[in-house]
Amino acid sequence: MTEISRELLLHVAHLARLELREDELARLEGQLNDILAAVSKVAELDLSDVPPTSHPLDIVNVWGEDEPRPCLSVEDALANAPERAGDFFKVPPGGGAT
């Protein structure tokens, strides 16, 4: 198993523009090496008969079928608009966020 050295951790932190304190460096080095050790255990397994998957559980679409149906009328859509200009929402110049 390859371990993450302090130098490699400092290099990656530099590339990511992270400033790490001494205690953070020590903690991250230990945590990352623990992760590598756990992953290396999986690499030792014979998985040749295990099919590749994108997700461990069956994924089902919970949405119903798209069915066309009538949309809101202009009057209903603009009923609560603070201001309108004809059939449109009226917003302040620049986008409206105030």
Key traits:
98 residues, mainly alpha, two-stranded antiparallel sheet, 2 strands, 37% helix
What does this protein look like?
- The chain is mainly α.
- The protein has a domain at 6-43.
- It contains 3 helices and 2 strands.
- It has helices at 6-15, 22-43, 74-77; strands spanning 84-85, 88-89.
- It has a two-stranded antiparallel ribbon with strand order 1-2.
- Strand 1 (84-85) and strand 2 (88-89) form a beta hairpin.
- The mean pLDDT is 88.
Strand content: under 5%
What is the radius of gyration?
28 Å
What's the helix-strand series?
A: HHHEE
Based on helices, strands and strand pairing, what is the structural class? mainly alpha
What is this structure's SSE topology?
Elements: H1 6-15, H2 22-43, H3 74-77, E1 84-85, E2 88-89
Antiparallel strand pairs: 1-2
